[in-house]
């Protein structure tokens, strides 16, 4: 298997990057292709977005274009992965007028985990949220996530560097028919059950695996010295014996064809699958899980946002956007943080086991940047576990 950890290290100044796949919903990808006019053909007044295909469903892009206060269209530069978007930010930074590059986008979609290296490398610039009418409607967790120093570290004194528009959480997905007495998996420690030996697929990412292990033991996934967590070495050694593969791209296929009994994956990847494969079961461990958000960032070479650019950010924070993102993209908007299961849009309510309850959300964490010494500790622990 290709070492994705090594592949994703490039261009991040040593910061480990996370490989996320976004599922296409229905025919939305075809509609998006029509909107992706190829930036060379986009009108000069168009709002330019660069994002993973369908991270904002085409229906929402059209809804924005049809608003009476919009005087021009939306041009999309779709990319296959978040890694390609990060690479695009780097290329715009080093050669903004380079041959073969699309024009610099007004807003680029970026994972929260990649925000720190993007800030440190000077690839993005702070966002002025003072003019956003919807910003004050967000729960405190969101400004806290994107308020950073010039080194990319969270700080109450920092600037706002991004605006979130969707998020997801890690879940346990498994086939109960392959378990003894169809016993439920409800906690991260359940991955250590003997019947799951060599039947588990975990993300090919050190912070995710080490993080869920720390959550299983009641510790933070962002501790600077994971080795100080009591019992972690033993837990990781036992967990590694359960693993069939570390895989961030084809883990769902492995479960479907029977090569694995349980996998750990992202809720927005898993939800469409659960609606198709009724034999699968999902769980969100009550001890807390790990979170990931997709953000809008402004490339460093981009000019100050136009009124249309500011309107786009407000649009992505509206309650209507949250409902339609759930319907057409089966995604969670920041406006839905802390909302009880019964108050979610209907497409996100079932199965109820995938819902991140407010109580579990309080125990869950985004992966935050670490100092160099802490990164080395995590890297060393990961290598020890894998060997």
Automatic annotation (TrEMBL):
GO terms for molecular function: polyamine binding. Its main location: periplasm. It holds the Pfam family SBP_bac_6. Keywords: Periplasm, Signal, Transport. This is Polyamine ABC transporter substrate-binding protein. InterPro entries: Sperm_putr-bd (IPR001188), TAT_signal (IPR006311). GO terms for cellular component: periplasmic space. One of its GO terms (biological process) is polyamine transport. It is found in: Periplasm. It comes from Shackletoniella antarctica. SUPFAM superfamilies: Periplasmic binding protein-like II.
